[in-house]
Amino acid sequence: MHHTKCARLQKYVIAPSFAVKLRNEIGDQFFSLVVDESTNEANISCLALCIRFYSTSKKSVVDTFYRLLPIENATADNLYQTVTRCLAEDGLDVKKMIGLGTDGASSMIGRTHSLSTLLRVDNPELTLFRCVCHSLHLAASKASECLPIIVDFVVRETHNWFSTSPKRTNEYQAIYSVRKQNTVPKKVPGLAGTRWLTRLEAVSIIIDQWEALKLHFDLSASKERCYTSKTLSDAYRDDQNTLYLLFVRKTLKEIVSVNKIFQSQTADVTKVTQDLIAMYRNLINIVVNGKHLSKCSDENLPKLKFLDHVVPCEAMNFGYEFTTYASACSLTVAQVHYIKERCKEFVVELIKQVQMRLPDNVKILMMLTIFHPSIATS
Questions:
Q1: What angle do CA 337, 244, 310 make, to 5 degrees?
Q2: How far apart are CA 173 and CA 171, in angstroms?
Q3: pTM for this predicted structure
Q4: How far apart are the first and last CA of the chain?
Q5: Would you say the C-alpha torsion 340, 345, 349, 352 has a positive or negative sign?
Q6: Which domains does the chain have, with CATH numbers?
């Protein structure tokens, strides 16, 4: 079968039959939608819809692709008209929609005028679910602005240095194998512009290979007439950058683990909210005295005015690696204090950003634990 005929069969025969089967299976049941706006390879804005409902044939809750709709622009009114028109064409009642999942775009979840507020006019009982993974990414990305730009430069340019040059990679592998007894170094991954938290893997690899990378860039700076190699050589020789990266690795490790839980297909949905709140509590515990924090319950934690109880940087716990390296390096007391202040600003901003993006219905989500088998069958 040729490509043209195969494509037309998929578009005009198979796809419509699947769509009709899906609509008949949903019927007049309650359902939830996951909505996201994106641009395809043809530079056309599209609205992707996934649907969740209870399948009577499979006797289980089903998540499946629903529609891909072209849109002229991603304004709140246009998104609302596109979604409601699609539901009307398929005979689905918007009042049967019990949940709406979106990213953090203002046109999706804005409190004054957005897709969620317009849908709530038709269905006041609609529950909004922000994408936790996207929210944590935005929070970490915003907080990173409190750190010196050289930190991001080291992580990004270390990957770029080796990504297009097998010669440089081989030279570095020779240096690393001598130091680590014929072992092959891990490659520093590239940075994703849409996922700031992917930097944790790159940061961990760079810290673990710091001495070998420093030696490599020292040799490169002496042999090559290259501004990048000279800048990276100076950066790897600066103990301040080591301290910043050590603190970033410690702080982001738990956030990334929670991010992976929400991305997992086998996560326990009755406990994921507890994991999120526990991560948030641990972040606050870095800059707030434990006595004040212990008085606040998990349900009231998102509304805690933590800025009123922030401790001085001398009383903060920066982690064992940070503290050990800070006492052993050649930096002065004033320089270490300045680094601690910048790290404190990073944590405070990170907490503020996470607090802004926590679900509004935390108390209800925390009650999901009663559906855990160990509790429901007790």
A1: 55
A2: 5
A3: 0.82
A4: 59
A5: positive
A6: 25-130 (3.30.420), 138-371 (no CATH)
